[in-house]
Amino acid sequence: SSTMSLSEAEVQSARGAWEKIYVDSEDNGTAVLVRMFTEHPDTKSYFTHFKGMDSAEEMKQSDQVRGHGKKVFSAINDMVQHLDNSEAFLGIMTPLGKKHATQLKIDPKNFRIICDIILQLMEEKFGGDCKASFEKVTNEICTHLNNIYKEEGW
């Protein structure tokens, strides 16, 4: 049974695209966060350790930023592995969404921001086809997170 709205072929090409960026998950995860914090400085307010950091260079060197970048990429990697199994996919998404909604109180618009930056990075490094084949996945992720937020009363 294919998931959500992705065909088998789309799942395969999305995995291929993700694979390319996931190979360097720590560096690429860090690059995504640094870009987010630099271009959307309000997103830093959720991370107490990152608040005082203003320069991209300083953020890039930070163990906390690197650690969180790796964590984000590893969570997405789990989702990508389960794109063809709705139940497993939601099994990963649901606790993650709930935690961000209730404990961390992260505005859900930030998920769209981070997904868009991942797509930008894919395009810069690997071209438009790579980005295009991952776009549907980011839409699924954001849609499901928004639904979880709604259930949590956002």
TrEMBL record:
Alphabetically list the UniProt keywords: Heme, Iron, Metal-binding, Oxygen transport, Transport
User: Phosphoprotein as a keyword?
Assistant: no
Q: Name one GO molecular function term.
A: oxygen carrier activity
The record lists the membrane-crossing segments as none
Reactions this protein catalyses? 2 superoxide + 2 H(+) = H2O2 + O2; Fe(II)-heme b-[protein] + nitric oxide + O2 = Fe(III)-heme b-[protein] + nitrate; Fe(III)-heme b-[protein] + nitric oxide + H2O = Fe(II)-heme b-[protein] + nitrite + 2 H(+); H2O2 + AH2 = A + 2 H2O
Top EC class of this enzyme = oxidoreductase
Q: Which domain of life is it from?
A: Eukaryota
Q: Which residues form the Globin domain?
A: 5-150
**Enzyme Commission code:** 1.15.1.1
Gene3D superfamilies to which the protein is assigned, alphabetical: Globins (1.10.490.10)
The record's similarity note reads:
Belongs to the globin family.
Q: Main role?
A: Involved in oxygen transport from the lung to the various peripheral tissues.
Name the chain's protein: superoxide dismutase
**Originating species:** Vidua macroura
This protein's gene is called Cygb1
